[in-house]
Amino acid sequence: MSNRSLHDPALRTPAAAQACAAFHPTIVEEVATTVAKDDVVVVGMAQNPVVKRARAALTEAGVPFTYLEYGSYFSQWKERLALKMWSGWPTFPQVFVKGVLVGGFIETRTALEDGSLKRWLEQGPPRA
User: Which end of the chain is less packed: N or C, by CB atoms within 10 Å?
Assistant: First the structure.
């Protein structure tokens, strides 16, 4: 597996680093704190059918989760952008298990179908 190249945060000017840090830090902290304390967290947005499918799949599998919702297609896009910058995941939902980003709906559904998500809840998910 190869990783997509990311810009090194150390190669930012102080002004750019400050602007990034100041971009909706309250919401980023709320998600980071929840991801650190809850076993399964789904971060999503209203009106998004893919988010609804991810939540339904977890519910159907009997996996309890915390759901955090930020706006819809018509609101809070900057807050969601801050979350995308934080997680590195480009879309919603963003699903975390034991603090590790699983991905979106497809990755979550796959992990539910092959049984790995339940194993991750017991043993912790793999990391890149």
Answer: N
Find residue 69's DSSP bridge partners: 44
CB atoms within 10 A of CB 73: 10
The dihedrals phi and psi of 68, each to the nearest 5 degrees, come to -115, 125
Please name each of the domains of the chain with its CATH number.
13-123 (3.40.30.10)
- Full-prediction pTM beyond 0.85? yes
The amino acid sitting at 110 is T
pLDDT digits (tens, 9 = 90+) for 86-123: 999 999 999 999 999 999 999 999 999 999 999 999 99
Would you call 98 exposed, middle or buried from its count of C-beta atoms within 10 A (0-12, 13-18, 19+)?
middle
| Residue 83 φ/ψ region, left for φ over 0, alpha for ψ in the -120 to 50 degree band, beta for the rest | alpha
Outline where DSSP puts E strands in 40-99: 40-44, 66-69, 94-97
